[in-house]
Amino acid sequence: MTTTIIEVVPGVDPMSEPHSRSTKPPKPPKVPKPPRRMPRPARAPIALTQAQFFARSSLAVVAALLIAFVLNVAVLSQIQHAVAQQRLRDDLTEQLAAGTLPVSEGDIDDHLVVDGVPLGLLSIPSLGVNQVFVEGTSGSTLAAGPGHRRDTVLPGQIGTSVLMGRAAAYGGPLARIQELAPGDRFTVRTGQGVTDFSVIGVRYAGDPVPSAPKGKQSRLILETARGAPFAPSGVAYVDAQATSTALPPGTRQTTFAALPATAQPLASDTSTVWALVFALQFLIVVEIGAVWAYRRIGAQKTWIVFVPLTVLAGIYVTNQVTILLPNLL
Amino acid sequence: MNSTEPRSISRVPVLVLLAFVTVAIATAGLSQSNSPAIADDGIGISVTVAPSPSSSPSGGGSGPGGSTSSESPSPSPSASTLPVSNDPGLGGIVFVSGLSSRYVASPNPMDSRVSLTFTVRNDAKSTINASARFWATTAVGARIGTERTLDIRKLQPNETRVIQTSISELGQWTAVHTHVTFSPPSVVDGKRLSPVTRDSFVVIPPLVIVGGCAALGLIALLGFRLDWFARVAAAIRGIG
After folding, report:
1. What is the ipTM of this complex?
2. Helix, strand, coil percent values for chain A (each to nearest 5)
């Protein structure tokens, strides 16, 4: 009888072939490949003069502001318009339910209706337009939605009414009104009810206007910029005639002669330049603070604190610049 | 340490703050002086509407909120506020829409095509024959693509007709202005008419440029990964 003694070693299978791994020779260490190209010598640090450093920093800030401006016009303004329309729609619904929606230039308390107050709902199904329009046609007012020129009667009332709207920025609510063909129909709801309109045609500046409405007729003119987006070449007018019964006109305190220049088509509203100055000051203060913090505190903490502040200041500045653009843009 | 240095440094923010406030106040004054009729709420005047018998908010039965009146119709703003030329245009008896442009995808990116739609309505008492000429220009006004002229024959009274055509060979001009000139008869129902032009703007996707950039990016990516690919191929050969 033969006895086999197997030595049990922890971690090694006793039934495996002994010394099976020792047959392969150990791999030689990898030899790193020689680089294809000789490494470039390290660049010598460029020493900028104070003037060069200032110029570079200024150009960087200007470039960042330009990018922020484009983002503001193309993206943020659309969001602002959507938010404003939601709020206006809430106000409009509430006032329609309460029966307090202004139908003249005075409100229910006999005070002059201020710019930005919702007056009604413009619905153009063929274009997918469903916008609350407000009183006033200045640039800042038209950021919220189409605006009613305050020297004209409300849409649906006897006479001629004018609604102006932007073509590109802030939602561009009236961007496609030139697609309206003669005979197309749309509606306007005001505090007096719903009025149906039929499109007469599209006009450009210089074209003869249709004959004035006769008797108790209601006419509506939609105005917006024409040409490439953000580069208007003129104003497009869409004339529409009410097909339902015209409503009594509301009292108007403002005449065309008293209409501010900022309420005219393609006018700029410079009444908020002071806000732009404050915004620029805020941006400069933030930049100075960032430089100070970078030198005293360090890059990481400066980045965390001042990037949101710089973005906020950039949005504030570019928003004020956007408001200065022509009101139909 | 010089005792005057911290004092001079502490003056800087105060001076800067003073300068900012001065500029802001000056600008605010300037903006107000430029537009004296504009208040913060965008209205130059704060007039209380004088109540009148016909303007009672609750009376008149003409609708809630605000006041209405049954005065004579407001004068049309067209007479005083809208630009009027001596050009007879369409004389108020023929009406047109704006021009609608739509990019049509083409298998040949250099032969870009745009579909154009235009509507005309005859409100005259007589049937008219007219023509519509369509063409396109670049952003700087250079003529591009083909030009189309369509005859609009026997447009009946109260008839609305949609005119549709397309312009091709627009290349890769990304920003394209399209135009149509509608030429009515010179005299209709005793009224003189003249041609009118309507414009539109359409974006043609720059497929060649975008495709070229994408191809260059792909080549660059492959170039960076070439060494990695070679090592994978060597490993596969080693396994084989």
Report:
1. 0.75
2. 35, 20, 45
